[in-house]
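WARN retry 2 of 3 for item q-0093 after timeout on previous attempt; input resubmitted unchanged.
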Amino acid sequence: MIKKVFVSGCFDMLHSGHVEFFRQAAQYGDVYVALGSDKTVFDLKGRETVNDENERAFMVKSVSWVKDAFVSSGSGILDFENELREIHPDYFVVNADGHLTEKRDLCHALGIEYIILERKPYEGLEARSTTSLRGRNYLPYRIDLAGGWLDQPFVSKHYPGAVVTISLEPTLDFNERSGMASSTRRHAQELWGVKIPPGNYEKLAKILFSFDNPPGTKIISGSQDSIGLVFPGLAYASYENNYWPSRIEHRLDEPLLRFVENALYLVSLGPRYPDFDVLSDTTIDRAGARALADAADGHWDAILNQDIVAFGHTMREGFEAQVAMFPHMMNDRVSALIAEFRDRALGWKLSGAGGGGYLILVSEKPILNAVRVLARRESE
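OK item q-0093 returned
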């Protein structure tokens, strides 16, 4: 009896990478493809599809490796759940960058084997992605490694401290609403197109920060977003009860960049929920702000000394200081994921303000199926 294989995704602008994924999945049996609706794709990725859901379903269903294709009836990251339960396949197959613990846990609950494939092109072909076919966007992303929230005066007024950021090459489409400065990145694209222009980094970051927060903005997007995008490499920005740092230390040393990118592993939580409110039930005081500032200073020292154990421990200490002040950053979903990696990681934190995004892990040993990052070097 031929077994059933279930896959899900957007599959917009069908290309050889998609077809190769279907081919690999078909080695396990008949492939059933659940496509995200146009609305679901927009809600999750913050952009409209090039091809609408009916055209995408028609094209995917025409691929010889695919048994059937259809538009999922649900919404969100598990929009395919109704169809998954109805088809009840033997296998659910994902690429590494499409892996989510919610998908895996749902499969385990339904008795479906969950398989993660490495994304790679068919032999002799170049690697393809929808992002590359849309036209290369060279605008970076950023991770706040430690000290996040101190770029807000309502935190740094209690105790001054630094935010440590690393600028990332856009090697993949990081999830929208994931704390990787994706909204500020969209504003950068409005301002400059697909590449940050040459010029003084601090001046450019100030321009982007101002454009990101026009007069009348009620909730200010912290300047660490603009700094982390514009400054290549690593930045240590010191805040003292102001939206802009009093000084920025900038490092582009190749050994430091390699050290950080080799230590980081990202596990996707999916985008944050629309009604997520991290600013409720907060306890922001001097003790909490100082703990966050001390952790950020220790984290920067760990980078400069290339001490991976201290790098992991100070990341965790900074995250714990954040959660003490902003308790909604932590929930059962995040707690369960941390517990899964606790024995394998030296430290962890969430990208951005939590509620979704990525669990960022520090480890000396490879973490299977995690997303890797590439630090952005000096601009041309």
